[in-house]
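::Amino acid chain::
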Amino acid sequence: MPQITLPSVLTRAEWQAREDAHQQHADDLTANWRVRVQRGEKHPIEDFLFTYYPFKPRLLRRWHPGAGVLLADAAAEGRVDWRWYRLDGDGLVVDADAFLAANGSSVDFIEKLLSRTAARVSQFGCFGLHEWAMVYRQGEHRHTVPLRLGQAGTDAVVESHHIGCSHFDAFRFFTPAAVVRNRLQPTRETSAELEQPGCLHAGMDVYKWAIKLGPLVPGEVLLDAFTLARDIRWLDMRASPYDMAPWGAEPVAIETAAGKAEYVRQQRAFAERSNALRARVVEAIQVARATIG
């Protein structure tokens, strides 16, 4: 269980420095996306974080200290009008009472999902075949990018492997012919019973859960979760059946022994990073619960 961090006070100089650093980091992370939007360009790897996850870049830019932290000398700041904050003398704190009262069931679900996922043994035998299952025996694909091995070659890879995808939001995009090949049949309701740390999509989703918790999660945790999701997405597409070389993504050829080994090596590192972030998000929830009156 994460260690509960005691409530603290940040002076005006301290919290403004953290806010400034956070905003600069967020701007750096979203700079390429903003340029592409202005130019009407698309990126089949990085755009995923702004299209599949429907969160605006401005949400990444908004720094929160997390629950239980008093921002001293902040009563006159624009933050006083932000939802889920309340005055405390001449300072501001996250109104954890109000947030939990309004979003209690969602917070409970996120805490349970992240805690149970982190507690499970990581599985490293999927080799990213979820992306292959999304195009199996299907002429039209979600991405307008050529298949690296062609349709017949892609189908042959799927048919030569056992598929064991545990993540519902990946499984729901399987083609009808691929659904029956998956040894698991995950649903939204069974997520907390099936998700495990080795799953790339579960690792990316830590970002989704962190941003849904709004001001309860410190801004630094949110940006770390976004960075993790971005890094995982690159492996996800490098190991996919698509030819991503034009975007500087050399393939991780999971149809070969060397490709499988490389996939698992990176998958293990991502499992460690995602579990560390799960612990930080769960800690933020527990701190919020500990501060309510």
User: Anything to note?
Assistant: The chain has a mean pLDDT of 93. The two ends are 23 Å apart (CA to CA).
